[in-house]
Amino acid sequence: MDGTIIVADDDRTIRTVLSQALTRAGCRVRSTGTVSTLWRWVEEGEGDVIVTDVNLPDGDALDILPAIRKRRPDLPIVVMSAQNTVMTAIRATEAGAYDYLPKPFDLKSLLATVNKALSQHAPDAVTPKSNDDEMPLIGRSPAMQEVYRIMARLMTTDLGVMITGASGTGKELVARALHDFGQRNEGPFVALNMATIPADMIEVELFGSENQNGSVIGKFEQAHGGTLFLDEVGDLPLEAQSRLLRVLQEGEFSRAGGLEVLTANVRIIAATHQDLRALINEGNFREDLFYRLNVVPIRLPSLRERIEDIADLARHFLQQAESEGLPSKVISKNAIEILKVQPWTGNVRELENLIRRLTVLCPDDTISAKVVSQEIAARPSSAVVPQRLGSESLSNSIENHLKRYFDLHGDELPPAGLYDRILKEVELPLIALSLAATRGNQLKTAELLGINRNTLRKKIAALDIQVTRGKEMM
Question: Rounded to 5 degrees, what angle do the CA atoms 269, 272, 277 make?
Answer without folding.
Answer: 105
